[in-house]
Amino acid sequence: MLTLTLLLLLVVAIAVLGVLVIYLVDRFNGLERDTKQLLQNIQNPQQGKFAGPYAGLSGKPLWDAVAGNPPAGMDELTLDGLRKRYRLLLGEHIGFIFKEGVSDQGKGYDVVPTNTRTVRTPSTQVESWLPPEAVEAIYRCGQGYARDDPAELPDLRQKLDEVCGQLHTQANLEVLQPPSSLLMPPRPEPVPAGGGPSGSQP
After folding, report:
1. What distance, in Å, lies between the first and last C-alpha atoms of the chain?
2. Helices (H), the chain
């Protein structure tokens, strides 16, 4: 019985020791990473300055960076990664403005949103800035879409694609899909009387 107890104590002690060793190794690795990062920042102070998904930028400075006027010290690799992430931010902001126009039209409001908005992304949240004239144009397209006038829709789709295309061009991004195909899909065709395609009864 005594031998069994000692054996159990020995097993527990070994397990505790193993956990402690794993913890210490992990802490050591963490300290090593932090030390390397600190040394890199000392050698290149600008590198730490542009940390984070959007390089520490938000609002108009973020727009200026992707539009070709980055802050001093930002290298091309950082700027390229910033633009790739900015695509999602731009799409979210455009969608918000358009949907605000749709919603306001239904409520009888006419209040153009401000050209800044805090946008949530899967990794963070950041303030987005867009040129005021583009914001108003997108908002008006949303209002027009909500009016549901078939004769008006082709011009609205063209206008939305033009404005959003200009924003992408300014941000040095390629338009992967026309925004109108996402935000202004064709209205469903009304079902003819009688329930069939030709309106005839079975």
Report:
1. 88
2. 2-43, 45-49, 59-66, 76-107, 132-147, 153-170, 179-183
Residue 83 near residue 100, CB atoms below 8 Å: no
Q: Which two tokens stand for residue 200?
A: 């005839």
Q: Output the tens digit of pLDDT for each of the chain's 202 residues.
A: 667 776 777 777 787 676 666 766 667 666 665 555 555 555 544 445 667 778 889 999 999 999 999 998 888 999 999 999 999 999 999 999 999 999 999 999 999 999 999 998 777 889 999 999 999 999 999 999 999 999 999 999 999 999 999 999 999 999 999 999 999 987 665 555 555 444 444 4
Strand partners, 125: 120
CA distances from 119 to 69, 96, 103 (A): 22, 9, 19
Q: Give the tokens for residue 90.
A: 């731009």
- State whether residue 117 is helix, strand or coil: strand
| Cα–Cα distance measured from residue 11 to residue 9, given in angstroms and rounded to the nearest whole number | 5
User: Kind and range of the H or E element at 125?
Assistant: strand 125-129
DSSP code at position 177: S
